[in-house]
Amino acid sequence: MKPFRQFFTSIVIVIIFLFTSSVATASQLRFEVYARPMSNLIYQLDCMAQIFRCSSKVYEELWRKKLHWNSVDKDWLDQWKEVRLKYHQGEIKLDEPPTKPLALPWSGPIGIQLGDKFLIATYHATGRGDLRTRLETLVAPTDMETIDSALIHFEPRFMTWWKESAHLSLLTFQKELTKKVNQPEMRKQTEKFANFYDVKFPQNYPIYLNLFYRPTSDIKDTHATVSDNHAAIEVLSGEKVSNVLDVVIHEICHFFFSSSPVEKKRQLTEAFAGSNDPLALATYNILDEGIATAFGNGIAAEFWMDSKHFKERLEKERGFYNDAAIDAAAKSLLTVLKEDLNQEKTLFAPDFPDKAISALRVGMPDLIRAPARLLSELTTIYDPKFKAVVKEKVRRILRGALYSKEGLENNSSWEFLEKYPKLNAMLFVLPESLQFLKDRSQWIPQKDKEAIRSIFEKRNSFVYAIERYPSTYTFVIAGKSPDEVEKEFIRLFETKNRFIGLLP
Fold first, then answer.
1. In whole angstroms, what is the distance from residue 489 CA to residue 184 CA?
2. What share of residues in the chain are helix, strand, coil (percent, to 5)?
3. Angle between helices 262-273 and 280-293 in degrees, nearest 10
4. Is the Cβ–Cβ distance between 484 and 429 less than 8 Å?
5. How far apart are CA 110 and CA 93, in angstroms?
6. Which residues is 32 bridged to in the sheet?
7. What is the pLDDT of residues 467-501, one digit of tens each?
8. Ramachandran bin of 400, using left for φ above 0, alpha for ψ from -120 to 50, beta for the remaining angles
9. pTM, full prediction
10. In the chain, N or C: fewer CB atoms in 10 Å?
């Protein structure tokens, strides 16, 4: 009997091991869904203060029509914005060994992003006291008092509205979404996407989905974003869970990309930067959004959506994403990504950059060649007179990484271009700024400086392009007033074809 017991025990151990391994794979990710009133209040204040992209006009209308907005509210929102902007950007650098510079900047965070950590604290806050506890390691004591006082001012009216209009609707949605995202099929599909990004998480790793109630209005578009493993998702009143699942997966894929192995992302960046294909950087700039949209709004949506509805979205312009270029990029990449998923290949396969460039060249030939595709990762160097235009207008229009430097006369303003030679650049200049371009011939050759000076004698404003590499340009936005350079920037952003020299 003893040998049999040993044999039986061995079989049991093997079965337990196989079962445990299977469960570990199926439950690699855990989704937690929250709809907290304090988080919603803070989101609305941040949104009305235009701290990030969101449905600002909708929330402004809500407070104006239903929550009795007044001049005192405006003063408090101004104080809120002043404090929030201190913590919206910035990085806590880690004590890590220096890495060899690439031809392009690192497109994701290197250290700890202060803005993300601030938002995450607000997502978890159950009340003002809890928020103070979560923020006190990030926020100066005097700023915490301003934050707390502003919340005291706005909270009573908000809570009355929340209980009457938002709470039950969002609670129902929260329960349905929690059930849906934790279904085995949903987890399995999400983890398949994670494998494409070559991400490895510990078992039962949490992904937080934070819901923000958005009243109905004539504006149909909603917004979502991600900070580390925390997604923020606006939910329309009466919204169906099936209409939001693609957004959930989309945002999670952004997190997967940011969590990919650092060295492999460096190799991917170097592959695009080193390519001589004129569409390489345009493809690289739209890659993160394009893949997230293809996975979430495309492949995942096709899985749970009825075929007729999905076909309509696939064939409709902006059917996946309300941006023509991102929508087209996602649809162009669908075939490539489906093949790679089936073959269990990753984003970092050696042949992926060439396949992606080719897919976009065929699938969106006009959009991928537009100068706007080069403007989602670039450095801007501007005359101080144009600071407000760059910080408030240009920043609001451009997506992605914008490295802004003030003062064309400062050597420090040009360090980014020295360090990252393939980085696209945009200069905002006055006629009197041209003297500061004298020693910048590696980015603005002498013949181009002379041409720019000559054009300024005939025109008050214009755009001039210098091709530095097949996929890298210096765009000079020239004007004599902030309004003129803003107008010229919009012309550049909307032009359909690449050009060298003067923009017609």
1. 48
2. 60, 15, 30
3. 140
4. no
5. 7
6. 208
7. 999 999 999 999 999 999 999 999 999 999 999 99
8. left
9. 0.86
10. N
